[in-house]
Input
Amino acid sequence: MQLEKYKIDEANQQKAAAHQRKFDYVAGEVANLDDVMEKLAAFNIAIPSWALGTGGTRFGRFSGGGEPRSLEEKIEDIGVLHALNRSSGAISLHIPWDIPKDAKAIKALAAQHGLRFDAMNSNTFQDQSNQAHSYKFGSLQHVDKAVRKQAVEHNIEVIKQGIELGSNALTVWLADGSCFPGQLNFRKAFENTYESLEEIYAAMPDDWKMYLEYKCYEPNFYSTTVADWGQSYMYVNKLGPKAYTLVDLGHHLPNANIEQIVSLLMMEGKLAGFHFNDSKYGDDDLTVGSINPYQLFLIFNELVEGMDARGMNHANDLGWMIDASHNVKDPIEDLLQSVEAIKIAYAQALLVDKKKLVEAQLNNDAALAQEVLQQAYRTDVRPLVAESRLRAGGALDPIGVFRSLQVRGNLIKERGEKTVATGL
Ligand SMILES: [Mn+2]
Output
């Protein structure tokens, strides 16, 4: 379904006066208002094709009804999101869950909704029914050359599909590793993986990037062959200028200082971008900002500082994507909340008084440095983010409009109560 613009405008009318009061109040405090509004408008976050259905755990999956049954319907759902928040203008495809049958038609449908194709994601963490060799004991690391070859060829196939869709990045996340001590020779696993990545790297066009994602554990529980940012950095540094390290917020050991990781990867020009989510204990894939919004702000503070230091374009020079799962919420509402949380943290980071912060750092004034950061963090920037949406034609209250227009109810009528989207 496509949301009609006039219905969003009608809903905005009812909230216009209250919004204007709140916006004027905070806007009066922001010295660089035009710059902040311009950057907020440009900042989009890609939605992965596997995030439109209800997520499951290894214990079960409880479908919410009206889930997209095809890639076309997934694109329509992201179209709904983008119409409401004007900040979800890209889709990240997962192969083979979402293989376009007709790339041209899919590209045209996405364009109709104002969407472009972000990074392509390969999958060698599951076996597909038509494949010759199993990934039970790894893919790019496997002791058997034939398995490695199959995994390399799959990644090259994903690149080819991405070229047709106008994507320019490949995200590689490996489940490779081991569950028990002694199972794997760490050095040989690294060497095999590196050799496989080299072959994939060689197949990428010159204007493409490889994003190598790391994860400390799960599904393997003793070792992971790309376990942390240091290991990912070793691979991408050896591979060459088209390879970068991708940070997924949930893929660290508890309490890792992710903002410091981000800062140093950017210093080396090797940060690919982000998979956003939030977590309490492990790779929980919860709604962005639902558990630890202060950490998200501190990460964005480093991102903005680092991008500005390198003269980078905030919106385009790094890859921004949500990688979350929705076990108990409506997927579209959950994604609206995640995008909102990201834009709030970004807006707060744009408000940091950098001059004052640098002074405090040079004077070893830890108290003032904290004051500067928390002044920005504790500013209610929601009216700025809402104003940015309003100016772009989106909704002041995206979830409110999603509910009042009964979007989910209509999707259930259209698609049925018992539909299950492909994905995890
Ligand atoms: Mn991820």
Remarks:
- Residues 260 and 302 are 8 Å apart (CA to CA).
- The chain has one domain: 5-415.
- The mean pLDDT is 96.
- Residues 173, 213, 248, 275, 323 surround manganese (II) ion (CB under 6 Å).
